[in-house]
Amino acid sequence: MAPSPNVPEEIDFSLFGGAESPSAPRQAPPLLPRRTKIPHPQDLQNSYGSTPQDPSDFLWLMTEEPHRSRRKAIMKAHPEVTKLMGHEPLTKYIVLAVVILQLTIAFLLRHTHPLSWKFLAAAYVIGGTVNHNLFLAIHEITHNLAFKGLKANKMLAIIANLPIGVPYAISFKGYHMEHHKYLGEDGIDLDLPTQLELFCLNNVLGKVFFCTFQILFYALRPGFVRSQKPTYWHFIGIATQLSFDFLVATFVPGGKCILTYLIMSSFWAGSLHPLGGHFIAEHYVWDNLQQETYSYYGWLNIFAYNVGYHNEHHDFPSVPWTRLPALRALAPEFYDTIPAHPSWPMVMINFIRDRNVGIFARVKRPPRGNKITPPAVDLDGGCADEVVRVCQPEAKEWQGDIVRQRR
């Protein structure tokens, strides 16, 4: 039947819920809902996956993690990237200011009942945001990006840990270094969920539980999967934190309420909090792509040391948080075609409600070596504790010189 003369032929009636356009065939909807976006699309072929992932197992890949190869390509195309590397002096001042801010708020609430609306609201809105900021300050310091020296960075991490209430800064360093060096390797990268978590939490209620208590999963997982050998720095960190907690609870009027506020803030920081979405946003598989790292470029990075620039961070761990936007701007041909998350809060909501995303949506690889003593893997400088590669800014590539540093 010919189109009505009162209706323009260019209208696509399929947009109105079922009627076919007379000029174009109806297209099947995409297999999965779009959860990510390409900031400046140039290669739209990579915007969607094809076949839904099997929810009964993780996504097992035999390919090398992508960051090492992209790092080499960027350094070849933009050798000036080395000028972005190095510590950021501003970090230590922000850390100290945030520590003082959180302790001041805790002191002001020392006579407020922990179950009052005022206390709970402050712990969630202010405390959760501030302690999440300290989590990511410790992450930044872990990469030795606050000071040039190792000892100074570790001491600052211990200070940043004080308002968190639970000692974790030093142990986080070892596990996080392995997360970078052995990304996705089963039994070594402890950022990965375990098979037990997949079995128990692979449903809506399980994902709600996981998102609510995800900070506890990160804290307890090492004890079940693979513990590290403690060093004297571990004991220094634990002793400092426990002494601080004891002194506050015992000798400061209202000290127990202060400590309750600090620990409650840490719980909310790693729970159903807008900033908490970054834990899921960073490495879960979305849109059925075989992409294991995602960035987020929104305004919440202001509170999170730009950790949303996560592809950039994994590519160059020695570039501090203040220069990650410059890194992205330096190599747009590499970063502007990678799907990224538009919202951290929506990441958590979609993770819970979307059956195509869950505990299973993580890339895993078989371990390359012994789980207790993983093989040494070369890593872009600035991160390692014992061995740091030296970069000469005027050179086009990293030099092979190895510098041994004392702790």
From TrEMBL:
High-level lineage: Eukaryota, Fungi, Dikarya, Basidiomycota, Agaricomycotina
Family of the protein in this entry: Belongs to the fatty acid desaturase type 1 family. DEGS subfamily.
Name under which the protein is recorded: sphingolipid 4-desaturase
Compositional bias segments (type: Polar residues): 43-54
Annotated ranges, domain Sphingolipid delta4-desaturase N-terminal: 53-91
Membrane topology note: Multi-pass membrane protein
InterPro entries recorded: DES1/DES2 (IPR011388), FA_desaturase_dom (IPR005804), Sphingolipid_d4-desaturase_N (IPR013866)
PANTHER family linked to this entry: SPHINGOLIPID DELTA 4 DESATURASE/C-4 HYDROXYLASE PROTEIN DES2, SPHINGOLIPID DELTA(4)-DESATURASE DES1
Keywords: Lipid metabolism, Membrane, Oxidoreductase, Transmembrane, Transmembrane helix
Classification via Pfam families: FA_desaturase, Lipid_DES
GO cellular component, one term: membrane
Record-annotated membrane-spanning stretches: 93-109, 115-135, 156-176, 196-220, 232-252
Enzyme class: oxidoreductase
